[in-house]
Amino acid sequence: MHATTLLLAYLVSTASAARFILHVPTTANLNPTTLPPTTHATLQFSGAPISVPISRSNTFTFTNVTAGSYLATIHSHTHFFEPLRIDVSSVPTSEGSTERKEVIKTWQTFLGNEWDNKGESRGEGGNGLVVDVRVLGAKEYYQERSGFNVLGFLKSPMILMAIVGMGLVFGMPYLMENMDEETKAEFEAMQKKSPMAQANPAQQLQNFDLASWMAGKTDQGPSKGASLAAQGQARKR
Amino acid sequence: MRLHAALALTACLSSGALAIFADDAGHIDYHLALVGLPKREDTFFQQPYAGSKASLLYTLSDKQVIGAVNPKDGAIVWRHSLSTSPNGTHGILRSGEDQDTIITAVGDRITAWSASDGRLAWETRFSGATVEDLEILEQEDGNTVGDVKDAVVLLNDATQGVKRLDGKTGRIKWTYQDTSGNTPFQVSTSPTHVYYISLHTSMLGASTVHVTSLSPVTGKKVDQYTLNTGNDISSRDQILFAGANSASPLLAWTDKAHSALKVNIIGTKGVSTFAAPSKETVERIILHAPNRVNSVPHFLVEYQTKTGHSAEVFHVNLVKSTISKAYSLPNLAGRGIFTTSTTDANVYFTRITSEEVSVVSSRSHGILGRWPIKSSWTLAGAYPVHGVSEVAVRSGSAHAVRSAALFSNGQWALVRNGELTWTRPEFLSGVVSAAWADLPEEETLAHELEVEGHQNVVAAYIHRVKRHIRDLEYFPAWLQALPVRILGNLVGNPSEPISGDIIEHDSFGFHKLVIVATDTGRLAALDAGSSGKIVWNIDLHQLSPGTTFEHPTLKTSRGYVELSDKGLVAPLLINVTTAGLLSAKEKAESVPVVRGQTLVFFDIVDGELKGFEGAQTNATPVWTFTPPTNERIVGWTARPLDDPVASIGKVLGDRRVLYKYLNPNLVLITTVSDSTRTASVYLLDSASGNLLHSTSHSGVDITRPIPSAISENWFSYSMTLDAAHNTASRGYELVVSELFESSIPDDRGPLGAAENSSAVGPNKGDALEPYVLSQTYHIPEEISHMTVSQTRQGITSRELLVTLPESNSIVGIPRYVIDPRRPIGRDPTAEEAAEGLTKYHPVIMFQPQWHINHKNEVFGVKDVITSPSLLESTSLVFAYGLDVFGTRLSPSFAFDMLGKGFNKVQMLLTVGALGVGVLFVAPLVRRKQINSLWTIP
């Protein structure tokens, strides 16, 4: 880490000036001539970023870029673009030579990650390097207003449940009426037999007699309400 | 890695919940795309490309914004802000005939823009130099490629001299270096020469004019001479004109008293002297000459006096190199302007006054056309300052003329045949301060209610009855308007008022006034509810003559606005309805008297933040905040005075409560250290000056802004990482911190049991420090300003409004996204999910749906102010800077208002259908009931 810091500091101090071009290619989902004129690219390193507006040939030309490791962002009001890491360095043209040349390396970069975490290379070369930038998508600013839709309303599960419930409530009596006598009797017998009818816990709870319970009575049975009423009457007399 | 990228991408592409509806855009918001006050020399009509039928209006403004305006409707076709520094130097805008580019020069940059769409054609920089002048070489000299015309620039400072730039690429063709040490003034071109004009200032203060003629092909010096100007010229302002590209470039100057006009044809040594009209003292002389090479060498000299204006037209004899006066235009009272336009070789002068437009030919004084200007409310009381015109002449008479003129009230207007086609309120580009003011009617009602509240019951009742009887006066009008309103509500757009009567329909409190003060000393009121309509617009110099307004600041109180400025002894109190100064009686009535309260005021004094008792800053401070050594204060933000909080705690998923640290006196101070490149924030209690919390960040780019905002029990700030000193990560960060009374739920901290406590009391100190939770996010762009939305009761969740200068946007970040309690490194538990917390992700992508400006690009936003409306769901937002933008925000949806999606007709139809259904079913039900009673079971 420290080594890179030192290296970068050294690179910054050497006065080299690179020139490279970011190019917006024509793709299936973007015709770059439709980009607004305020579309511009910035190179951020330290201090005010270098900003270049989009040219007639859909490019951003950076000139006199000093050595450093830059974050390149393309700002457009209509589209998202992939951020890039652009490293500009100056190296000797050959071993032991005093002449220097600029080397520009570009990678995909990811926000919220370490700077050394580079993605795919997007091209490297000397002065005049042309890098194609990638568009990530169009910006959709608006929300569609959901109007009232009868079919959509009917499709919702709540409404479906309600319709089924209604059908049962209204349809059951007709079904019962249309049954022949034998089946009806059988059905009623079945209903009586079913545990629901015999010992409905909810019903039991509803009919729970607090007064008798308080009185310490442990009476059970279906007729307890009636007997209690009789008792009460007896007492009144 | 890939996963992160994919996550970020899905995050930015997934549709957010809080977006603007497409049909609301442009209705709930308003945007004035401004360029600034256009400059006299840098505004013109021009075809965007050779052979184009329509022309556009190009201008470079005082704000260094280049803009192309459609002359038909005044809409911006494209624009660029060129200023690199806030007090940018002067800029120049030029274009050649039949060219598809226009060229600007600002500072050290010369840029050619595609005239039709504003794309960059080429840019050339001369670092260290400033461009003094720029001209287009109109001549074809075999040195150019195709039809592209080259530019000639005059540079000052680092490399003084003249350069010819290729019109296609911007490369330098030749350079003429000037080493004489004279002050470069201008360049001018003629068909045969390029003239370089410089000023030589002698010891006595008088300047002489040096003219160097250069060969346009090689840039070599051909000739050089000094004009005999005597002692006339002592400052640059006295040179009236140094001929632009015309067949006969002229140099004209005047003496100090404006008594004589002296004209020289550049390239000759002769000076012609003409006396100015002597009836009245001439205050200003302006020379108007055509700048087309093929036009006839005629020019007009405009004389402005205190009460009127007149003009004289001169003809130049190119063969004899003499100048003669042709005719003069009569003196008219009041202010007026002249503009020059050319058609083929003919030159026409258009005279524009507040009353009429007239056109004359340069050949004779006969008026070719005359149109009275129809009076309009926007231009009432204003006079034209300067302008440009296009004249269409058919068979000897002008049949159409359109002029774009800047008026004295800051409106840029296009007058077509006397009719006002459009106006652009360009004075609003210089807004430096803005404040919300309630409508006067609401204010009076509030006042009356207050009166009733302070009286005894009987008196209050009588007062109330009286008030209702008085209100009856409006009843017939209200009744009359009712059918129209109901119809309009059903069919039309509910959020737009039908009639101009604002007050009656303002049941939602959207019609607030925004009072704005500009750097040019104007004060205006905009109606936030009617698309930012200008209610009134006044010149502050009329209210306070002789004052120069530098940076007026505004503060509104009931029914009036208080304007203070360095140049003012006492603040001006201005009525918000009438735009007049408050009378002494009104002053006494409306200025509230604060009783039984001691207010602590604070301000930065000598690099320290000091709190004072009372408003006097010369008293001894109650407390002083001195930043640590090497640190300097770069800004401070205080919690808004009116910041209602609905709940004192935050209910957790398990029904326990985290109590918010709510202190009305919170102040957030940001400091930077130049040597260590750290940024620190300090949270103070402004009543006692106690330090509540501080934190520090290293590796911060301290040259970039550190905006901050504070609201309720949380604050946020943003900064740029300095890549030169921080190699770990790159970009921009947003920090959000939330304050709680204690880290433990259901605990109110050390002061929980205390009934009363005071920050200035005896037991101050550590016990009062809040528990602070912070989270930091990476953001894709720099933030220049941030503020928080405000609602009436504070029940609606807040939104952090951040200004993004790079994408010319204002983004509202929902509060739940920047909740510092988002779990880190794990998925939220069921209880956390119930609170609405999502897993922490280090990046916040600004989703397009969060952009409150949607498709509008809002340039140069300096400040965003918010205000509650009468509806709890809605907050009003107003942004100013270069552009003016306003909108309504509903951070938790418009839950208390019917949206446009609610179909009133459908609702009525449904009710009607149900009614009909009941009519049919009722007899059936009745019969069934009767039957059921009569049948034996």
Automatic annotation (TrEMBL), chain A:
Subcellular location: Membrane
Disordered: region residues: 211-237
Membrane topology category: Single-pass membrane protein
A single Gene Ontology CC term: EMC complex
UniProt cross-references to Pfam families, sorted A to Z: EMC7_beta-sandw (PF09430)
Residues of the signal peptide: 1-17
Coiled-coil intervals, chain numbering: none
Transmembrane regions listed in the UniProt entry: 158-176
Protein name: ER membrane protein complex subunit 7 beta-sandwich domain-containing protein
Organism: Delitschia confertaspora ATCC 74209
From TrEMBL, chain B:
Membrane topology, from the record: Single-pass type I membrane protein
Span of the signal peptide: 1-19
Top-rank taxon, per record: Eukaryota
Listed GO CC annotations: EMC complex
Primary localisation category: endoplasmic reticulum
Domain called ER membrane protein complex subunit 1 C-terminal: residue spans: 711-934
Domain EMC1 first beta-propeller: 19-426
UniProt cross-references to InterPro entries, sorted A to Z: Beta-prop_EMC1_1st (IPR058545), EMC1 (IPR026895), EMC1_C (IPR011678), PQQ_b-propeller_rpt (IPR018391), Quinoprotein_ADH-like_sf (IPR011047), WD40/YVTN_repeat-like_dom_sf (IPR015943)
Region called Disordered, residue ranges: 746-765
Keyword list, A-Z: Endoplasmic reticulum, Glycoprotein, Membrane, Signal, Transmembrane, Transmembrane helix
Gene Ontology BP term (one): protein folding in endoplasmic reticulum
Bilayer-crossing regions: 907-925
Protein localization: Endoplasmic reticulum membrane
Subunit (UniProt): Component of the ER membrane protein complex (EMC).
Protein name, entry field: ER membrane protein complex subunit 1
Protein species of origin: Delitschia confertaspora ATCC 74209
